[in-house]
Protein 1
Amino acid sequence: MLLLSLGACQEFIHNSFDTFTGRVVDVEGNPVAGLEFIVTQELDFGPQEPVAKTVIYKVKTDGRGEFRYVLPSRNEYSINSYYFLVLTAPAQFQMEVFGELVTINYISVTDVEKGSDGVRYLGTLKIVRE
């Protein structure tokens, strides 16, 4: 019984990986090439904007504004099951939250569903430079 209970607490799923893809555009809808962001699982919510405590990857968009990275699959019941994308100033993500446009330097990508091809497509992410 103890082994079964310990197995359920695993943070990662053995031999399983998730591919994340997406595209970054500016407010006019133009692809943003060469934009670098950080993939992390821990954020420090200090007195300023949140910053990555650790860096898993630094990812850059290609000429079409597209990106792709692979991470180990996390068990949804693990204590720390989140992955975040973090931008550094002056770039910020722009998104609609409860009908209002907001800018923020990070987004969570944990809850993005897998497509039929097994890829977690993040869609088109809009950024602004402030």
Note: The chain has one helix and eleven strands.
Protein 2
Amino acid sequence: MKITGFNPMILTKPEDAEALIKVFEALGFARRHNKVNEMDMAFNEVRMKDENGFYIDVVSGKLGLLERDLNVTRINVDDFDEAAEMLKSKGFRESKIISEFRTETSKYAFYVAPSGLIINLVEHIK
């Protein structure tokens, strides 16, 4: 398994997303693209990048599950299944809220460590 990307992700309420994006724009980040998913797990993801090549994703879920913002570590890999098995062998469990999910362009799931650390594991489908 090879890590192909690594960056912070913030999960926020839809009504708070634009204000949070404006904060990161003030810090020098620019919007790269916006991914909207209207499937079962509806979300809006704004990917941002600064001039140094750092990324941050601001994701707002449409199911109203969040009480407050959550910080997540996004890890892109070239082999989702291998990475998922490695995380599970280290005590991580698949999230009950966002379990394994596929879109046309990616496969992902949220994994939670016993300590509470959340990893969004992603493999882009080529």
Note: The radius of gyration is 14 Å.
